[in-house]
Structure formats: C-alpha cells, structure tokens
Amino acid sequence: MSADTVPVTGWGRTAPTAARPIRLRSYEEAVAAVRGCGARGGIPRGLGRAYGDAAQNAGGAVFDMTALNRVHAIDAEGGTVLCDAGVSLHRLMQVLLPLGWFVPVTPGTRYVTVGGAIGADVHGTNHHVSGSFSRHVLSFELLTADGEIRTVRRGTPLFDATTGGMGLTGMILTATVQFQPVETSLMSVDTERARDLDDLMVRLTTGDRGYRYSVAWIDLLARGAATGRAVLTRGDHAPLEALRTPGPLAGGTRARRDPLAFRPPRFPAPPAFLPEGLVNRTTVGLFNELWYRKAPRVRTGRLQRISAFFHPLDRVPHWNRIYGRGGLVQYQFVVGHDQEEALRRIVRRVCGQRCPSFLAVLKRFGDGDPGWLSFPVPGWSLALDLPAGLPGLAPLLDELDEEVAAAGGRVCLAKDSRLRPDLLAAMYPRLDDFRALRAELDPRGVFTSDLSRRLTL
Questions:
Q1: Which conformational region is residue 412 in: left (phi greater than 0), alpha (psi within -120 to 50 degrees), or beta?
Q2: pLDDT tens digit string along 82-122?
Q3: What is the pLDDT of residue 125?
Q4: What does DSSP assign to residue 250?
Q5: How far is CA 54 from each of CA 62, 120, 415, 426, 430, rounded to the nearest angstrom?
Q6: H helices then E strands: how many in the chain?
Q7: How many Å is the maximal CA-CA distance in the chain?
Q8: How far, in Å, CA of 97 to CA of 116, rounded?
Q9: Phi and psi, residue 76, nearest 5°
C-alpha cells in the first residue's frame, strides 16, 4: 500500500485532483483499507476509463482494484462466471470466447473492470435488445462502510442502488455474471449511409429490431441539407456456417481453423505529450468527410473481428492523448422516444457551433433497468467527444443540460465532470431514494468521490 498522494484524473484528463492510491491485493486488505481510509473517505477505481471525476477523491483515498483479478469459477455449460471485481472485460473475453461465450454487454472499450461495469451500469450497442450490464449480473459481494461483506442479489434495493451507483454504496469484491453463447469470434455486419438526421432516425426505428447490435456515427460538422448525415452499422455474431462460405474472411484461414480465437491487434501508443489543437475543425472536418465517403452506401454480411466491431479505439493505447494536455469532454445524454424534436434541436445546435467531434455516436435504448442512478432509459442517446479547451464549450453544455432536462432526459454520470447539481433530481427521479439508502448504509461518508461531492450524492 502506498501512502503518497498522486494526481488522479478520468479518461478525459480534465480536472485532476490529488489522492492517496491504495492497491488492494486481498479481501483482507480491502476490509482494512475501508476501515482505516480516513476522514476524506475513499472510492474504488478500476482501469480509469470513466471520463469524468467518478473515480477521483481529492484529499482522500482511491482504492485500486486491479490486483483483485481472479476468475474463480466458470460454468462452461451454462455460461455463468464468478470473478473478482478487478477482472477486465478484455480478460473475460480471452478466457470465455474460446469456450463459446461472450460478454452480454460491452461498452466502447473492453478495458473496464467488472466492478466498474456494475458501478456505472454500462451499456452497449445492444441495449435495445439486452439492456445494460446489470441485467446480466446474478449477484455480487459488496464490502460496505461498516467493514462487512454482504451478498447482494437481484431484485433488492441494495442491488438497484449499487448498479449505476458509481461506487458510492460500497466496494464490489466479486460478481456472478451470465454470458451469452456464440459460435465464432466474428461479427456479421451490415453498413449503410444515411443522408441526414431524419433519414438516420427512420432507419434506426424501422430496422433495429432485426439486429442485436446497432450504432450510428454522425458527422456533426455537416450542415444544411446534410445535417446529421451518418454511417449506420448493425450486426450480430456470425454463425459457424458463415465461415464455410467461400471468399475473403476476416482473420483468414486461421479463423476457419479456430473460429473462436480472440487475437485483437494493437498499434503503438501516441506520444505522452502532443501539441495542443490537433483536434480542430479542419482536422476533424477532413476526417469526417473521408469517413463518410469511404463508407459503402449499402453493404451486407461483411465478416469482421469482434475487436474491430466493438472496440476499434482499443487498438491504439492511450488514444485520449491526441487531445493534448487539455483533455477531452465526453458528453452523453438520452431523451425519450417521443422527444425527437429535442434531439434535432441539440444536433442542430452542436452543428451550428461547428464543434469538432470525430467521435459522435447515436443509438436507441430499449427498456431501462432498475438501477436507481442507471443512465439508460428508452429513447435516443447521443455521445460526443469534444476538446476540453474548445472556446464557449462550458456555456454550450450548460444550455444542452437544460434542454435535456426539460425534455425529461438525463446525462450519463460515468462521463460527467461538470453537471450542475440542481438539474440532477429532474434527470434521476430515484435520487432521493439513493441518498436515503446511502445515508443509512454509510452515515460517515466512507465511500465518497469528487463526483459525489460535486453533485451532493
């Protein structure tokens, strides 16, 4: 365990604060750390992929969970896994894919821990079919502020407060998760262009039910008749029969010999220090134009590696460095299926401001899960990455927050580092229930973070 204080940030590399990291190697160390973490408390932290300040704790402790990374038991017939909270989704793919099982929900990176996936109740491009991660969690062990370890099962208030609770109800130590069966480690992918936002929404609404996974990249620098033009990508896990079809195959003959192989490629990381301003209207405009033009107007049945379909950015370690020292803000919100006009207004507003976002993703959410602070609700979700130093960004996002709240929507807490606390209750109706349970479970505020202080969670 380290007693030194170090700067800590989220993946966006904004708003760093100093905290005392405590690397936990056993459950006994975890209990001792929670009982002795001091007046400023502590917060569990996995691989640091939350964009904002959810896993920071100024002046307090940050519990590094990554050494608690054992896979305890696998039911190879039923597809359930018992593992430590510090196990990454990447590691679970390495272990489970060769056995014919895949994670039920994955966000845009596989370098998140199981504990982080539960704490943020992460979602993926299959939310309209599979819901968020917590829907597939059967139970977990939770170390609470009193130093006790509790077994928490689905359907209980503590389960619902913890899934999406951003680590504030306690420290998840182990979890039992149900995986989904697959026949190969390839995806069958359909791609098409949409000429504008309305065209895109029609395609998503009418076609999503035919796919397990669906996501659209939007060009937020296009304006006029092309506002909201997009590339729509949808797919499902390729069956074994697809590998027997003659023709080019992702992974070549090796894929035919070993259809469940998982060998994601890795490229060199960007330098630690890059010049400021690499992500600007000119560079992003060029990227967006090339990306849209190179996409096929319509293409069906292309076979693609799982890693390329779900996690293209994972090929470049520390890709967040391209935004320079100033970092990036990822802004993600959801509004209901009856709030399409609010979505149109927001997209027009961002396009009108010429915000340089080369990563702008629209998808449709299905039924929400019972987590009290879980982000997904039925509707339209838009996520965009923006340089943190963009002139006028703070007032723009404040205005978008107001628009989202007025439409009955919400912003994603796992991505947030700047939301005003007065809007939180309108976005999350179970907020008072969460605060009451947390006050009863942790009256001294042992589990605390920069996020919880900023939003008075």
A1: beta
A2: 999 999 999 999 999 999 999 999 999 999 999 999 999 99
A3: 98
A4: T
A5: 11, 9, 8, 20, 19
A6: 14, 19
A7: 65
A8: 21
A9: -70, -20
Q: What's the pLDDT at 244?
A: 79
Q: Are 290 and 213 in contact (CB under 8 A)?
A: no
Let me know: does 237 contact 183? Beta carbons within 8 Å: yes
Judge contact between 433 and 371, C-beta under 8 A.
no
Quick one: tokens of 301? 């049945």
From residue 105, give the alpha-carbon distance in Å to each of 102, 195, 236, 433.
9, 29, 13, 27
Residues 193-205 have pLDDT tens digits of 999 999 999 999 9
Q: What are phi and psi of 148, to 5 degrees?
A: -95, 150
Residue 358 CA to residue 177 CA, distance in Å, equals 34
Sign of CA dihedral 179, 181, 183, 187: negative
Q: DSSP string spanning 318-358?
A: TGGGGG-TT-EEEEEEEE-TT-HHHHHHHHHHHHHTT---S
Contact (CB, 8 A) for 22 and 3: no
Task: Determine the pLDDT at residue 3.
Answer: 56
Q: Whole-prediction pTM value?
A: 0.96
Residue 165: helix, strand or coil by DSSP?
A: coil
pLDDT band at 276 (very low <50, low <70, confident <90, very high): confident
Cα–Cα nearest to 379, from 400, 392, 368, 364? 364
Residue 423 CA to residue 455 CA, distance in Å, equals 9
Contact 429, 377 (CB under 8 A): no
Coil, strand or helix at 292: helix
> At a CB cut-off of 8 Å and minimum separation 6, what does 157 contact?
433, 437
pLDDT in tens, 211-238: 999 999 999 999 999 999 999 999 999 9
**Residue 160 Cα distances to 141, 153, 166, 369, angstroms:** 14, 9, 12, 9
pLDDT tens track for 379-412 = 999 999 999 999 999 999 999 999 999 999 999 9
pLDDT one-digit tens code per residue, 324-357: 989 999 999 999 999 999 999 999 999 999 999 9
Contacts of 207 by beta carbon, 8 Å cutoff, 6+ apart: 214, 234
